[in-house]
Amino acid sequence: MPEQPIEGWIGIVRYFDDIRAENAMAREAIHALQERLDDWDREQDIKRMLFEHRLLAQIQFTGKNAEDAQRQVESVNAQLQAHMGSHKLKDKEHLDRVESLQAERIKARTALWIQILVIVGAFLVAALNLIPHFLK
After folding, report:
1. Which residues, including other chains, have CB under 8 Å from residue 52's CB and lie 6 or more apart?
2. Are 25 and 94 within 8 A, CB to CB?
3. pTM above 0.70, yes or no
4. Sign of dihedral through CA atoms 118, 124, 125, 126?
5. What is the phi-psi region of residue 63: left when phi exceeds 0, alpha when psi lies from -120 to 50, beta otherwise?
6. ∠ at Cα 72 (69, 78), nearest 5°?
7. Which residues fall within 8 angstroms of residue 33, CB to CB, at 6 or more apart?
8. What gap in Å lies between CA 77 and CA 83, rounded to an integer?
9. Other CB atoms within 10 A of residue 127 CB
10. What is the C-alpha to C-alpha distance for residues 135 and 6, in angstroms, rounded to an integer?
11. Is 95 exposed, middle or buried (0-12, 13-18, 19+ CB in 10 A)?
């Protein structure tokens, strides 16, 4: 009988270790996603600036009027926005996965606290049942 509480506590310690490992995995996933997003944003800004400089140089060289150039810029911006939208959708899927991991962690912690309360309640009931024997 003394082995049961020890096994229970070892299970709780293992459970906390599992939660700690899940937290580390979630932090790594969030950090990797943030780095990827930052790198992608910087790359897109550089590409956009290079494109704008080339476009402005082309406009000056060919002598086209400003309205044609503005339409080209708007067209390219629309294409760029569509392309960026597809990448943001992929990143959103990854963030949704991280959110689901965090929700699972919260559920696991809630279950752990319920188990702890049940164990504490069982000890209290046992103690209350033993009190009459000590009063005899």
Report:
1. 73
2. no
3. no
4. positive
5. left
6. 140
7. 91, 94, 95, 98
8. 10
9. 9
10. 29
11. middle
Q: Following DSSP, what letter does each residue of 124-135 receive, concatenated? A: HHHHHHHHHHHH
d(CA 11, CA 19): 12
For 43-96, the pLDDT digits (tens) are 988 988 898 888 878 767 766 566 666 777 788 778 878 777 777 777 778 888
Paired tokens of 40: 């992608």
Residue-range domain boundaries for the chain? 3-99
CA distance 69 to 110: 60
Compare 18 and 59 and report the one with higher pLDDT.
18
Q: What are phi and psi of 65, to 5 degrees?
A: -80, 160
Structural contact between residues 2 and 56, judged by C-beta atoms closer than 8 angstroms:
no
Cα-Cα-Cα-Cα dihedral of 114, 118, 120, 121, to 10°?
Answer: 130
CB–CB of 29/98 below 8 Å?
A: yes
Contact 55, 75 (CB under 8 A): no
The sign of the dihedral angle between the CA atoms of 58, 59, 63, 64 is positive
